[in-house]
Amino acid sequence: QDQVAAIISSSFFIPHVVIVVLNPVIQRYGAYKFIKVVFLCKLACSILVLYFGSKTGIRMAVYAVAARVLTEVVCRTSPLIISNLVDHDRIYNSRASSKSGTIVGAANLVVKPAVSLAPMLGWS
Predict the structure, then answer these.
(1) Which of 32, 66, 86, 119 sits in a 20 to 30 Å window from 57, CA-based?
(2) Alpha-carbon gap, residue 58 to 72, rounded angstroms
(3) 102: confidence class by pLDDT, cuts 50, 70, 90
(4) pLDDT > 90 in the chain, percent
(5) Contact 65, 14 (CB under 8 A)
(6) Residue 45 near residue 67, CB atoms below 8 Å
(7) What is the pLDDT of residues 19-29, one digit of tens each?
(8) Chain-centre distance for alpha carbon 84
(9) What's this model's pTM, rounded to 2 decimal places?
(10) What is the C-alpha separation between 110 and 107, in angstroms, rounded?
(11) Distance CA 101, CA 80 (A)
């Protein structure tokens, strides 16, 4: 029971620490490259678990925490990606004012129902 509690609590705490610690990296290299590296890390974790197996509880615990942390890190940086998209749209289309409401609204039109429906349909 104590191990499960430690896994769950660390998977909620560690993403915040990772974002704070890696914020200079995100600013230097950009959000796209950062998220690309995070996805590659998640893929590498999955391949390692597939290759080495999950015979011990420690391996699965480390994988579960790593997968959750990497997923949460991407979720925490998604507002940055949307703001980059808004800025790019303004520059690319030479707009006097940004269409941030339209872009954020369109993104939420897809994301919010998916977040609400996924647990009800058993996809979470």
Answers:
(1) 119
(2) 21
(3) confident
(4) 9
(5) yes
(6) yes
(7) 889 889 888 99
(8) 16
(9) 0.67
(10) 6
(11) 15
Query: For 6-57, what is each residue's pLDDT tens digit?
Result: 877 887 888 888 888 988 988 899 888 998 999 999 999 889 888 887 777 7
Residues in the chain, overall count? 124
Please identify which residue in the block is written with the tokens 């609204």: 105
19 neighbors 73 (Cβ within 8 angstroms): yes
Residue 68 is encoded by which pair of tokens?
Answer: 């959750």
Look-up of token digits 């269409």: 99
CA torsion angle 53 40 35 90 (round to 10) = -140
Alpha-helix runs per DSSP H in 30-99:
31-52, 57-92
Burial class (CB in 10 A: 0-12, 13-18, 19+), 61: middle
| CB contact at 8 A, 64 and 11 | yes
Taking alpha carbons only, the member of 2, 17, 3 closest to residue 62 is 3
Q: Which amino acid is at 118?
A: A
DSSP state of 96: S
